[in-house]
Amino acid sequence: MTEAPAATSLVDGVLHVRVSTSRPGNPLDPDALLAATATLVDVASGSLDAGAVLLHGGGSNFCAGGDVRSFAAAPDRPAFIRSVADAFHAFLRGLHAAEVPVVAAVRGWAAGAGLSIVCHADIAVGGPGTSLRPAYPGIGLSPDGGMSWALPRIIGRARAHRVILTDAVVGAQDALAWGLLSEIVADDDEVLPNATAIASALAAGPRPALRAARRLLAASAESGLDAHLDAEADAISHLAGTPAGVEGVDAFVEKRRPDWTVGR
């Protein structure tokens, strides 16, 4: 697998984002994420017509974490690592603010920052060779990228504490059973094509409805049931008056395939 020619590219409504470099191990690519952050701002504002985001690696691994060699070479390590963390977090904030479904093609290792990124995907596709690991304790550092916030919400408090504190390796089958991966394909070479197909189907679907569903899912962990029921009622009633909502209901009644490009 060769490195993508650009950090981001828009293909058939899917924003492809390369999160790691093609260097050995495929470490996090801060420059690529900086470019992706700017592009995600355009998605959030509506100036870039993307219906889904596809996250993938620059080689045989999704992302093996931060570039530790650059950490070691920095004259002021705390300041340098803070700048890397801030840029990384800006990317993750942009990913959430874009309010479109996020699909991750998790081939090979997702370690450190790579695991953090997986935690922010709506759908994560892995293969038999997929492995996930916190990695931070191994270099004497604590998690970033929201790992200590997201992982307990995904796999539960007890598992998250054990995984992070013991730097445990989570194999593909456990990752699937615990909810870190959404599915496992039969061959590692099929991870990216499968994830791309999912992202393309989402981008071709009812985008306003998917955005609303993603907002509701994101809010569900922090909202009470009463307030969340009101939010759901507000969302579904609003969507019923949008072109996509009208088209979806009418197509169902008329027994035809809906045209989700209506109103875009």
UniProtKB/TrEMBL annotation:
Keywords: Isomerase
Protein's UniProt keywords contain RNA-binding: no
MF (Gene Ontology): isomerase activity
Tree of life domain: Bacteria
One of the Pfam families matching this protein, by short name: ECH_1
Keyword Metal-binding: no
Family: Belongs to the enoyl-CoA hydratase/isomerase family.
Protein name: 2-(1,2-epoxy-1,2-dihydrophenyl)acetyl-CoA isomerase
Lineage, uppermost ranks: Bacteria, Bacillati, Actinomycetota, Actinomycetes, Mycobacteriales
